[in-house]
Write a structure and sequence with these properties.
This protein has 264 residues and is mainly alpha-helical. The chain has one domain (18-262). Helix content is 77%, strand content 0%. The chain is built from 13 helices and no strands. It starts with a helix and ends with a helix.
Length: 264
Amino acid sequence: MTNNGSLKGLVRLLGPGLLTGAADDDPSGIAAYSQAGAQFGYALCWTMFLTTPFMVAVQIVSARIGSVTGRGLAANLGEVLPLALLYGVVALIAGANIVNIVADVAAMGESVRLLVGGPAVVHALALGVVCLTAQIIIPYRPYARYMKVLTLVLFAYVAAAFSLRLPFLRPQRAPAFYLIIGGATLAGALGVMTPIDPIKMLVWSAVLNGIVAAPLMIVMMLVVTNRKIMGDFAASRVLATFGWLATALMSLVVTALLVTTLSG
């Protein structure tokens, strides 16, 4: 195989997993890491050895559910949850993501203000419009390819502009999706007008995502261990064990967080 063929094969292998990992390094995540690093230094590095097997198990569970069923998470959850509980879980996920988008866009506007000056609200509005426009007019597959290229920023911290002539993707195909994304993006652009500090907003959005993750992991494990849904690709005993251990650990941490927070 030629070097060019090998490179193309490697690029094809870098699919949704690469984008998912890169997307986790969003402003709210970076803010949470910075806060933890400033407070604890290297003292928590040992947790990497504890949590990595659990993270791998959860990623495998997520990928397996999608690849086997070919459906979104909400559709799969409907197979194992009552309708009312399904709506509750979906509302939690949507709420956490909306708060996260608001915090991210507001923080990006504040960051641009620190770099070039000017009103943060204008920068946030401009960034929000650019992000929303790109999501609406660029079809998924070209957009995903461009996102792969942007992951290089994590290694080189170099931004590049692009110019593509692509057909429009009609938002009418998924009005609810674009309504939520658009509303959350614009809310984030306006978030800089509130008295809430953007960094605090980022940290608390990361905390909210962590809280929502616990019930989400529970229902994901119910799906991946259900042979009626997964068939022969249901989680093995080893994968199920690590998945449930990760879920129990996450639930324990969330419980401890809520107890300590509510108790003052």
